[in-house]
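Worked example

This section walks through a single chain of length 218. The input is the sequence exactly as stored; nothing has been trimmed or padded.
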Amino acid sequence: MIITKSKKLEDVLDSLKGAKKVLITGCAECSTVSRTGGENEVKAMADTLTANGFEVVGTMVCEIGCNKNNVKKELKQFKDTPYDAVLVMSCGDGVQTMAGNVDVPVYPASDTMFLGEVERVTLFSQACKMCGDCVLGRTAGVCPITKCAKSLVNGPCGGAKNGKCETNPDVDCAWILIYNRLKKFGQLDKLEVSNDDKGHKINLYPATINLKEEKANE
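Given that input, the structure is written out below as tokens.
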């Protein structure tokens, strides 16, 4: 899940300077769970913009804010509604998806923080850096790239104390977690295999994945 955090209101209002008629959109997926762009947040933002002199011409919570075709279909309800800016209350991908579907300036109301997991309502923790080379099968389901402050791939740094990371005593050492889980599963032999250091070659940007082309090349 993409975790987002709402921008400061003054920054949002400042970005909209010069706009008069504003369309506000959110996302029914990640931003709703993050409480940054669901129905309640979009309505509250509409009330706030109205109170600050903007004309909110419409609101929409997209079913999937990062699906270009879906967003295009959902925008049809506003095809006869003039607006000179769109305020997007979703992740950076959602902002760019909206920008690809409209011919007016698009502004983010949120900052994209990380790909994470929901521990409980309103508590999220980073789980994946989307490195493009997953090692979870060798590390007992604990990601050393994300869970280790130094993203070490071949064991701990030696600075851990009482099972905690030397950079933050409130955070468990990822490699101690990995060791304990591998031991529990009888897979400590996996620690004898050297993992390649992470590079950036596979993460050239912008990345694309074409499933049809991949299937044709199989």
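What to look for: The helical segments are 9-15, 30-33, 39-51, 68-75, 92-99, 144-147, 174-185, 211-216.
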